[in-house]
UniProtKB/TrEMBL annotation:
It comes from the Eukaryota. Belongs to the IAA-amido conjugating enzyme family. One of its GO terms (molecular function) is indole-3-acetic acid amido synthetase activity. It comes from Quercus lobata (Valley oak). Residues 365-451 form the GH3 middle domain. InterPro entries: GH3 (IPR004993), GH3_C (IPR055378), GH3_M (IPR055377). This is Indole-3-acetic acid-amido synthetase GH3.6. Keywords: Ligase.
Length: 618
């Protein structure tokens, strides 16, 4: 297998970064991509053999009778394709402190809490120490690729809004936290050697500050203060970047005061943040005046290019549900390129975009064959007013064996991604649907199509149709004592507000003339929110990345009009079902034109870090 490039060796740099050794490192990284994609089939076979030989004695594989075999054929014959629910007993044992070799021969170092949920709680992905190296490797490939399209990025800084989230301990004492929190707190990030490509405006202390207000404030302050050095800006997801701009809209006067006087607002109480920021900040009245003048203008169109004039692109994920934020980003940036660099998950990091300046709608990710062993389940998606998947939840023996290997996928076909990882997931269904857009050598490049079953998403929350249905049912119970009932509903992820929020359109039938008090509908909003999973509730309570849920009551007959519209567009009248989520602008407009009243959740739902069952055990 081609070696990973050694691009973390500081001695290869001089301090300006613009030298031949930087070129050498870039070349090495690109050569690595060339090599692993050209030999994708061999690399994949070797990755599988390596994983299976390491884990020859783990309980899970022994139970399935793999008997130490490391070849693809036997593996596909005896090891089943699984979902998180299938692995939950094993995961629970690990969480409860069983340190035996259940899934992996190496010690589980921590759990990564995925934004996917199971039973309303975040999924727990076991991980091992060496996975951090694999993640770092993928990160180290991004800038050499970017450098081919936008040279000179080593001459300035990146303004990235990066945050950590709360962490919890499992009853067995393992830390459980999101993958990025784990990465930012690791020595791979904190002690990274000087590298012009990971030279950020935010000092580590501001990123590692657990208080989200202080973290955001100090990162924005440092970004504004170093405005002319900034060559690229970004966050992980588009929603996070827009949140930072909204924060700026609310707080620019305070920030400018700090820049003018070279002091830090007393609300920033974290001493390590204060110390780190004060090392950078000096009084700069001219810059403060400039920022005040720009922020004080009526229009914020192009504010990014006005405040950070040397910015070449915005580095944020706008594929998948995040595409809803593209118009807002275009407005704030005067149409700067939106760059989606990588595709990753808590289970494993997968791949990167080799053509980063392409349009968001054309983004494809090349899966790096050394990250894990990939398989693909062909899916036939029916799109239209109701999107559905023709694949059952359970696969029969033949389907289990007939998954397609990385190098055998077909151009244009859609697949569900299935991975076998070094950390102990075997033939695990990630839940993402990908479409083959092309090939880099032998390795396919995939468009991200969607997350299976997810109907609503604003930030990292993912709400599926069943969850929505249950939540709406719980809430509609509040109407019963008024002799009213819910006749139809649908939903919409409204990203025109910041933060975005969920909207439910309700058509109700009343058998009494007495009106239902607004407080009842507000209770309905809150009941829906209380019924949602912990990722949604965390977004509302802790991250403040989701706004209060809104119920819009529509006039009676609205859902009939919706059907008429769908049939008029070619939907079959026999098969028509009201969509449980709408995205298509003319339909949203139609629904909005029928709204007779609207109500918001009056407060945040309940949420606490950690899983419900662990809290109960404390
Ligand atoms: P998590 O496990 O919480 O880290 O979430 C991982 C999921 O986020 C993936 O399985 C995808 O559904 C989604 N995701 C990650 N990267 C991208 C991307 N570049 N474009 C679209 N969706 C993504």
């Amino acid at each position: 297998m081609p070696e990973a490039p050694e691009i973390n060796n500081v001695s290869e740099y001089d301090c300006c970064g613009s030298n031949s050794s930087l070129d050498g490192k870039n070349k090495k990284a690109l050569q690595f991509i060339e090599d692993v994609t050209s030999n994708a089939d061999e690399v994949q076979r070797r990755v599988l053999a390596e994983i299976l030989s390491h884990s020859a004695h783990v309980e899970y594989l022994q139970r399935h009778g793999l008997n130490g075999c490391t070849d693809q054929e036997t593996f596909k014959k005896v090891v089943p394709v699984v979902t998180y629910e299938d692995l939950k007993p094993e995961i629970d044992r690990i969480a409860n402190g069983d340190a035996s070799q259940i899934l992996c021969s190496q010690p589980i170092s921590e759990f990564l809490t995925s934004s996917g949920t199971s039973g309303g709680e975040r999924k727990l992905m076991p991980t091992i120490e060496e996975e951090l190296e694999r993640r770092s490797l993928l990160y180290s490939l991004l800038m050499p690729v970017m450098n081919q399209c936008v040279p000179g990025l080593d001459k300035g800084k990146g303004m990235y809004f990066l945050f950590i989230k709360s962490e919890a301990k499992t009853p067995g004492g393992l830390v459980a936290r999101p993958v990025l929190t784990s990465y930012y707190k690791s020595s791979h990030f904190i002690d990274r050697p000087y590298d012009p490509y990971t030279n950020y405006t935010s000092p580590n202390e501001t990123i590692l500050c657990p208080d989200s207000y202080q973290s955001m404030y100090s990162q924005l302050l440092c970004g504004l203060y170093q405005n002319t050095q900034v060559l690229r800006v970004g966050a992980v997801f588009a929603s996070g970047f827009i949140r930072a701009l909204k924060f700026l809209e609310k707080n620019w006067l305070l920030l400018c005061n700090d820049i003018r006087s070279g002091t830090l607002d007393p609300k920033i109480t974290d001493s390590s943040v204060r110390e780190a920021v004060m090392k950078i900040l000096e009084p700069n009245p001219g810059l403060a005046d400039f920022i005040e003048a720009e922020c004080g203008k009526d229009s914020w169109s192009g504010i990014i290019t006005r405040l950070w004039p040397n910015t070449k692109y915005i580095d944020v994920i706008v594929t998948g549900t995040m595409s809803q934020y593209i118009p807002t980003l275009d407005y704030y940036s005067n149409g700067l390129p939106l760059v989606c660099t990588m595709y990753a998950s808590s289970e494993c990091y997968f791949g990167l975009n080799l053509n980063p300046l392409c349009k968001p709608s054309e983004v494809s990710y090349t899966l790096i064959p050394t990250m894990c062993y990939y398989e693909f389940l062909p899916v036939n998606r029916k799109s239209g007013f109701n999107e559905s998947f023709s694949k059952p939840v359970f696969l029969n023996d033949k389907e289990n064996q007939d998954l397609v290997d990385l190098v055998d996928v077909k151009l244009g076909q859609e697949y569900e991604l299935i991975v076998t990882t070094y950390a102990g997931l075997y033939r695990y269904r990630v839940g993402d649907i990908l479409r083959v857009a092309g090939f880099k050598n032998k390795a396919p490049q995939f468009n991200f199509v969607c997350r299976k079953n997810v109907v609503l998403s604003i930030d990292s929350d993912k709400t599926d149709e069943v969850e929505l249905q249950n939540a709406v049912k719980n809430a509609a119970n509040n109407l019963l004592s008024f002799d009213a009932s819910l006749t139809e509903y649908t939903s919409y992820a409204d990203s025109s507000t910041v933060p975005g929020h969920y909207v439910l359109y309700w058509e109700i039938s009343l058998s009494r003339a007495t009106p239902i008090p607004p407080s009842v509908f507000e209770d309905c909003c809150l009941t829906v929110e209380e019924s949602f999973n912990s990722v949604y509730r965390q977004g509302r309570v802790s991250d403040k990345s989701i706004g209060p849920l809104e119920i819009k009551i529509v006039e009676s007959g609205t859902f009939d009009s919706l059907m008429d519209y769908a049939v008029g567009q070619g939907a079959s009248i026999n098969q028509y079902k009201a969509p449980r989520c709408v995205k298509y602008a003319p339909i949203v407009e139609l629904l909005n034109s029928k709204v007779v009243a609207n109500y918001f959740s009056p407060k945040c739902p309940k949420w606490a870090p950690g899983h419900k069952q662990w809290l109960a055990e404390d």
